Automatic annotation (TrEMBL):
Native species: Pararhizobium capsulatum DSM 1112
Protein name from the UniProt record: Branched-chain amino acid transport system substrate-binding protein
Chain segments annotated as transmembrane: none
InterPro entries: Leu_Ile_Val-bd, Peripla_BP_I
A Pfam entry, by short name: Peripla_BP_5
Length: 378
């Protein structure tokens, strides 16, 4: 490997999803800290903050590649930002490492998806909710590809199973006027609410729904839960105090997971930065992704994207998310499913789990039948 390999980190630490970007940034920093604490050297992280400006993501990716020589870029939060950056990464035959839950129906040889797609989060979530609460949900979504596609898929799955979607509404990322949606939900009385809102819109909705539940117990979390695939520990402090308690989220990692690997991970984080009281899925996924990228570089002795891609696809890798395998046909990681319930302490209690699920981004069923079996290396 060259004297100093550079990895680009591309997040937004301000704006409607700034909390996620800040935790992604911190997770990447901690991965480099862990690497150096173990005697590692020869790797540098180069950070670019896009400040939630879609055009700035392209500018940032260009600067990381052209000005800093980064051949791997880790980051972007929204699917809009990911899709903005991919053509440039393709042009330079680099690698984009994406580690946020997304809506699927994508696979690219220049992207490593350390991120859940619908068969890893949405479908198991619906499998849990429908038998317990009924098949007449209300769908909410951010007004861009994540919200559109997640709700489209949920609608198809619910209607094919004989259920009925009682309502479907969308809000811009920073819109917080949710009164009409609350009134509609109060009138239609759904079985549960699938929340694909982002940031302030989601926080305002949860607070308004709590006020509705205070007037009408039918909307308490135990009776009509709000379930998400994108709400993490780092956002809970931005929600009106107590408003989200009892609501649900499906993610591949929660701070409360009681495993030896996670206990050791949390202890190291606390020593590094004692102010971090809860580790989010975004932090853990960024940490795992940077760690994996560095390990692949070390193993193949190069920062060449072709060599790195070949290396990461060749074996199973131990991470804080579990021993992960990347499917060579889709470049997607197999991830566990955990369902968390928000507790009064600013975290999640895990109430259901499944072992690692092979990603099936196009929902063909083919990937599940041909899951690779690879050895684990340390």
């Amino acid at each position: 490997m060259q004297d100093m390999a550079k990895i680009g980190i591309l997040y937004s630490t301000t704006g409607p999803y700034g909390a996620l970007g800040r935790d992604g940034w911190a997770g990447a920093e901690f991965a480099l800290h862990d690497w150096r604490a173990a005697g590692g050297e020869g790797v540098e992280l180069v950070f670019f903050d896009a400040h939630a400006d879609l055009s700035a993501y392209l500018e940032g990716a260009r600067s990381l590649i052209r000005d800093h020589g980064c051949r791997s870029i880790i980051g972007t939060i929204t699917s809009s930002a990911r899709k903005e950056v991919i053509p440039l990464v393709e042009k330079h035959d680099g690698l984009l490492w994406y580690m946020c839950p997304y809506e699927g129906f994508e696979a690219n040889e220049n992207v490593i998806y350390v991120a859940g797609c619908p068969n890893q989060h949405l479908i198991p979530l619906l499998d849990h909710l429908v038998p317990r609460h009924g098949n007449r949900p209300y769908l909410l979504g951010a007004n861009y590809v994540w919200g559109w596609e997640m709700n489209r898929l949920a609608r198809e799955l619910i209607t094919k199973a004989g259920g009925e979607v009682l309502g479907e509404r969308y809000l811009p990322l920073e819109e917080t006027a949710v009164e009409r949606i609350i009134a509609d939900i109060a009138e239609k009385r759904p079985s549960f609410i699938l929340n694909n809102l982002i940031g302030p819109s989601s926080y305002a909705f949860l607070a308004a729904l709590q006020r509705l539940a205070e007037r009408d117990p039918a909307f308490l979390p135990e009776n009509c839960p709000v379930a998400s695939c994108d709400l993490t520990e780092c956002e809970l402090s931005d929600i009106e105090r107590g408003a989200a308690i009892g609501q649900l989220c499906a993610l591949p990692y929660f701070d409360s997971l009681d495993t030896a690997v996670n206990r050791a991970f949390k202890a190291r984080v606390q020593t590094w930065r004692p102010s971090i009281t809860h580790i989010s899925s975004i932090f853990a996924s960024a940490y795992a992704t940077v760690t994996l990228c560095i390990a692949a570089m070390k193993s193949c002795g190069s920062d060449d994207p072709v060599a790195i891609r070949r290396e990461v696809l060749s074996r199973s890798w131990p991470t804080v998310l579990g021993d992960i395998v990347i499917d060579p046909a889709t470049n997607h990681v197999a991830l566990p499913f955990h369902l968390g319930r928000i507790n009064p302490d600013g975290g999640f209690d895990v109430i259901a789990s499944r072992p690692a699920i092979v990603a099936d981004p196009y929902l063909t069923g083919e990937r599940l039948r041909s899951a690779p079996s690879l050895r684990v290396v340390s």
